[in-house]
Design brief:
disordered C terminus, 524 residues, mainly alpha
Amino acid sequence: MSGRQHKETEIARRVRAGGLAVGRSPALIADEIHEVCGPQFGTTKIKAHRLSNGIALADVIEQVRALFERDGKPVPGIGETLLSAYESGMKRPGPEYLHYLCLVYRVEPLALGFEGPCICGHGHPAPGGSGGGDGQEERPDTSPGPRVPPVPPDSGTPSTDGGEEDENVLRRTLLGLIVGSVGVGLDSQVLGAVENVRRRMDDTMVTATVSPAMLDQWEQATAGFGRQYMNTPPLRLLCDVLLEFSAVRKALERRQPLDVQERLCRMAAQLAGLCGMIMIDLGDHRLARSFFRTGRTAADETGDRALRAWVMARESLIPLYYGDPREAVILAKKSGEMAGHTPCAARTMAPVVEARALAMLAGANGSRQDVVDQAKRALHRARLAFAQMSENDQEDPAFGYTERQLYFYQGDVLVKLGQTLEADVILEQALGKYSGEDLLDQTLIRFDRALCRVIEGDVEEALRMGRQAIDLVDEGHRTELILRPARDLVKAIQIKYGDVPELKDFRDSLVPGVPDTSGAGEAR
């Protein structure tokens, strides 16, 4: 312990002793320690609460672990380094850790120096009924499991509370998904919160000091969301991404140094683009377009052509599935032109989207040879661009473009062009490049291969492969992203062979109660 830390501890010990002598609660003693030690030593509120209880970092960690065990959860990996980072202000606890720290100290998040309510939705009363010094009696919560307080109906207009209520809606939705509550879904209230968070970022971008450690943490979280994109249920990931999105927005509300401002705008663009991708998966093309518009605004602030091109390339997927493939071709070409000669993900993705849209047009127009040739030329440009990408971009499925994605969509284009022999070989190669990760892409590849069997006349094998594909996907991932190719397989069989007996069993294997949204897309 340094001399400065030793002096801080000694002063806190004297304040604690004096407070206990006159009967003050630990929460009131913590306030006094913060007032006395804060100006001199930078003592944070959360550290003041530990000092007011007269315990060491190791004691807090053991209490947190004991509470996790009490609740039947795996013992967390929290250690003294992480807890020290919370106390120094270098990091903010995640929603779950914050909840258990509130239980340890028997106070609310604000008393520990963190804005917003706890994800549990109720107080953490100290012995005797005090809920953290707010002067109100805390009634015991006798309901089983987490209690979720009622939320007023969404008005469609951002509230004046700085976005806290919208974030609370997302936190409660996230908590419901974590504990497996029945009925948690993408309802009007959640959609209203999603839109309000996005609008606030728009307002911040047109109106406009974070520590380097916090910037690093946010950038790591953003990159992590990109890695989770292929494997995390969309609604769960959306809540996580939007809460980080809100944190970045709050930092942007104050003008920052130019280098900090640029990093924040980059993260805003990436998170907005990721939200747009998720909204495509969830079937809401209106909100997807809005998020991509926000992403473009943020990307324009960075002056990074590659980032702006990436946002536009991702946006081109909306008309590819919800509208006219010709619009997708136009957006994809604009993305490629914006990327220029810069080696980046957009230079690979844009011609791939162009080829997929052209293949759809070729199928609608009876496989016109000139359109087929254009699609193949676009794929050739994509392969050349991929070879020039950095290794990091080649390993990132969300903000970059991977080799397995390139193989997958090459095969997808060939399927749409009716060239099944070549398509099946490439799709099999693509499937071999996946391991346990990216289950959704593997599922879509299996549906493409099943469609090859239909075109070749082997309906029984096509339905077997389709059934295998859908059985490998859990319910949390069975969004329009998965149901669209499954329904396409059904339609292809019906058009060519009618209602064969095995078709009913395959229909029954699809998720019940999910509406057939015509033209729903994929952002993968």
